[in-house]
Amino acid sequence: MSEAAVGYTKEHGERFVEELKELLRIPSVSTAPEHVGDVRKAAEFVADGLRAAGMEKVRLIETSTTARKGHPLVYAEWLHAAGKPTVLLYGHYDVQPAEPLDEWKSPPFEPEIRDGNIYARGAVDDKGQMWMHVKALESLLKTDGKLPVNVRVMIEGEEEVGGEGIAAFVREHGDQLKADAALVSDTEMFAPELPTLCVGLRGMIYTELEARGAATDLHSGMYGGAAPNPFVALAQMIAQMKREDGHIAIPGFYDGIEEPTKAELEAWRSLPFDEEAYRKHEVGSTELTGEAMFSVLERTWSRPTMDVHGIPGGFIGAGAKTVIPAKATAKISFRLVPGMRPEETFAKYKKFVEEICPKGIQVKVTMIHSGEPIVVSTDNKYVRAATDAMAKVFGKETVFVRGGGSIPIVGDFVRELGIPTVMMGFGLPDDNLHAPNEKFHLANFHRGIESIVRFLDGVGAGS
Amino acid sequence: MSEAAVGYTKEHGERFVEELKELLRIPSVSTAPEHVGDVRKAAEFVADGLRAAGMEKVRLIETSTTARKGHPLVYAEWLHAAGKPTVLLYGHYDVQPAEPLDEWKSPPFEPEIRDGNIYARGAVDDKGQMWMHVKALESLLKTDGKLPVNVRVMIEGEEEVGGEGIAAFVREHGDQLKADAALVSDTEMFAPELPTLCVGLRGMIYTELEARGAATDLHSGMYGGAAPNPFVALAQMIAQMKREDGHIAIPGFYDGIEEPTKAELEAWRSLPFDEEAYRKHEVGSTELTGEAMFSVLERTWSRPTMDVHGIPGGFIGAGAKTVIPAKATAKISFRLVPGMRPEETFAKYKKFVEEICPKGIQVKVTMIHSGEPIVVSTDNKYVRAATDAMAKVFGKETVFVRGGGSIPIVGDFVRELGIPTVMMGFGLPDDNLHAPNEKFHLANFHRGIESIVRFLDGVGAGS
Fold first, then answer.
1. What is the ipTM of this complex?
2. Which of A164, A259, A412, B280 is the most buried (most CB within 10 A)?
3. Is A94 a catalytic residue?
């Protein structure tokens, strides 16, 4: 019965893209206080889309955390497939900040199609992929008048800021999300034309390390040599945490790490991965870095790491200001792998920086957000339905990979709801996630919709 | 004859302060392109003040450097004291940026008098002190109709950005500045009520160290572990350059340094300096830092050092952005002491960072500006005239100190014009130079004017 729905996806494909453009025009940057209204506008847009698709009980669910009022969740359901499994569709409508703006070829919130790709902040992460879900539901409901399985939809607006709101909701109202499996499209294909399921994600802690020295900004001529410099202190602490060979020197940092199985490592080695092409075309640096005894895929999938994202404070204007700033703050994150727990890693890190804190400096470490690392089972009918669906659409066998990034909610689905998650994503390695000129390959947008239609159909048929 | 002029300074003292307030209202921030017009306005204000004082040939001299069009110099002269020496009065009308604005108790460009101090950006550095010169000239010319010596005035608008314009002018048109000595009031008194001459200044190089890794900003989840992080690289390089004990590890950095004489060190030890009070009330940190085997005065006057002023680039907004930035730039300066040359130090630093540059990173080192370190002789009639003048005004013997900061032009006066400089300053240690809540103690403004009147008179009488 999905053939009619597949036909519908093709017939209405152009309209789907136009709708996506509208959604991409809303700058729903969840981390920016000035965009609170835009984030809500995007939530309303998604809710309207779900209503138009024929979903039921569509509503915004307000969230809040201790730190602040949160962005709303968008909920919808269709539960009339008696005896069939229930699939929870997850996505997010919030996006990363678009800065640095001057590196975008077209403005980040004015979607533009070039060479078969749609360029905009959020194109692939995750508005475009989330919209595939909405359009797959519409295609099924408009042609068959019903869905092949029971479906709940939960779209969040805080994925890019740690997803605390949805995590709290899942924890406290798990009964309202009762399902047998979740489908998430927020990952990428390993290579163009290569259908891919992601079966593991790194976790993370995102922190701020603040260093305070003098009581006020001081003239570096008059006080240089005697007054503590918080930027130098941060540099000294960061250099002690991360060695040049990529090893993280925080005591106990690697304790308890679960290595990938031999079979998994073997499968990774057979993936079409060209390290030199990756260096040249994806990273674009003179050399790759990190732990030389691990392959690049291991370094980015199954090894923890540490990165510094920015060091606000001090003088950042053009030219010169001879100041010893009173304080500086480094934005530092760690990616975690199975066997590591965010709170434990944070505690080790905090203890270490407090121990190595240079003379005259006071440090404060703050956790901004965190997510658990996860690995999911590949041995269940939902994964089989996904690989079957993609085999039909792409005509190829699916590869299993892990992702280096974090989708914190997947861990919550496992832990709180006890359900497996199928991470079937349609991004490409060069889609510029979190970077200027983010894009989504439009062919994959359409194939994604068809794959989701076939996946839901397959789950319904197979049960 | 200076007694009439001294009487005039007291009679008109209140007006002098009102005029200074007007000058302080002009945000002549020389490093900020958006304030180019304000910088010129301040130059015009100073020129008008010199004209009103009765000075001759008052004019703006345009400057330019290879990098950009410069801010104008203000020139004036009065050369009718036949047979008397010529004194070159130097000051600057440009100011440091006022940021961080939220730490000012009253707005930086709305001067406010509290507890006998005038608060504003530039109050003491150097508008207030430069205005003392203009008012001393006015007081002499309005009462005696003439000056006791020949005077040239040269006020610049680029001191806070390296003073390249005036340096070029001195180099190329030294004949137009022919003088026997220079008077500079851009330093501070060692302690309240303690008349002070500064006889040495550190030099500096102000640089930008740019690190580039990936070709574009990358998602730290997807690429963390394999892509070079320019912030981590800068931290690693900075930590290798400056050890926690304050030692700078650049090879050859300390080569050729001229130590202060035993007599000078002895004199420093007898100065009223309380290290604990300095730590607590001036610096406000939990501990002082730097080379423990040197006293604090040595560390800030006669030892070179390195500071980081800011590290622009990356994500500096509120919250989190999981990005590996393509580039980061550290603003790094070094203070130099006699025996060191800016170009040589820069070359050693550049060579070292290129050597230690981590894998996958490309560095670029840029010199923003530089200044030579200097020491001036204390054995001449100009220094004696200055100590005599301050003895009359303060009723105390003058102490000789050095300054940790740089006034690049003083080196040029020595090298290009071959003249000694008297650095007679009236700031106080807690005047917050280059920091929020900069102030000038008004009693010192008035005593400064009187001291300059008596100094010029003394030079004239003694010759």
1. 0.85
2. A412
3. yes
